[in-house]
């Protein structure tokens, strides 16, 4: 295997001059650089990427630390990151487990976390002593990080406002909320929904909350059976969440409660699509019998029947801004900042006027 030293000997220069010529990292006379590159090509010398990374302490690799490989929204985010990072000459690698210890062995320059909960869990564990640059996607949840972390945040209050307004403008007054979390959850979506609908339901508000979760479903063997494989450690879920399956269960609970609601706001698009499938299997038509609106704007929401009405959280912009914030940290040590992105309504066919 040809080494940089052999190239230097043939060219009659020092190894450091060869390094500068090969890496474009310092001044080398034009003719000398041309000769060095020609000799390197003649000898078949190419810089070893691992050796280069160790020398520069820079790998040009970013880790998207995301366990949920079934979640279409995260897959859309990853596609956006790959494109945005490529324009900055970085590569994005994907981690599909919750084993934070593996980060110690990864050759990466920084990490993008998919949400606030996983970010804080990282900071409380491996991140206490392993201070790689980190950026977190954020969804308006009240998570106080133990150190300053840049965020790309979606205004989830605005998301819920757009969803409820779209339904009200179509004549819906009785609206339910389908969620994979308990009613006690501090999730921004639930808090915003309760704030908007409190005046309508008063003390009956919880009746219109369809929670597919152990705390709300203690007496329902179907739900407990479905959730029995959800292993948790220190409050963090270790396995992928089946939002589609939970949406199906939420639809059945909605029908069994015989609510007078004419529409449902779903936790996300996969949850909404699961509800639509279950409603169809029960003989309930969407949107003729019940309207459904989702959150996310994932790619598949445009190709289902009926086409899903949803509030788009711009995954492409989340990805772009996350990469920009992280690269600024890596290359310039930029301070933490929060960028807030605004959602927009994507009209589909799953909401009807009444």
Per-chain topology:
Elements (H helix, E strand, L loop, with lengths): L3 H8 L3 H9 L6 H14 L5 H8 L4 E5 L6 H16 L3 E5 L14 E4 L2 H9 L9 E5 L12 E4 L1 H14 L5 E5 L8 H14 L7 E3 L9 H7 L4 E2 L2 E2 L5 H15 L5 E4 L2 H13 L9 E6 L12 E4 L2 H18 L5 E4 L2 E3 L8
Parallel strand pairs: 1-2, 1-3, 3-4, 4-5, 5-13, 6-7, 6-10, 10-11, 11-12
Antiparallel strand pairs: 8-9, 12-14
Helix pairs in contact: 1-2, 1-3, 5-12, 7-8, 10-11
Task: Describe the protein in words.
The protein has 354 residues and is of the alpha/beta class. 41% of the residues lie in helices and 16% in strands. It is built from twelve helices and 14 strands. A six-stranded parallel beta sheet has the order 2-1-3-4-5-13. A six-stranded mixed beta sheet has the order 7-6-10-11-12-14, with helices on both faces. Strand 10, helix 11 and strand 11 (291-296) form a beta-alpha-beta unit. Helix 1 packs across helix 2 and helix 10 (243-257) packs across helix 11 (269-281). The longest helix has 18 residues, at 315-332. The protein is elongated.
The number of helices is 12
Strand tally: 14
Alpha-carbon distance between the termini?
Answer: 75 Å
N-to-C order of helices and strands:
HHHHEHEEHEEHEHEHEEHEHEEHEE
Mean pLDDT: 86
Quote the beta fraction: 15-25%
Q: Note the overall shape.
A: elongated
Main sheet: strand order: 2-1-3-4-5-13
Largest sheet: 6 strands, parallel
Helical content, roughly?
A: 40-55%
Poorly predicted runs of 5 or more residues: none
Radius of gyration: 26 Å
Class of secondary structure makeup: alpha/beta
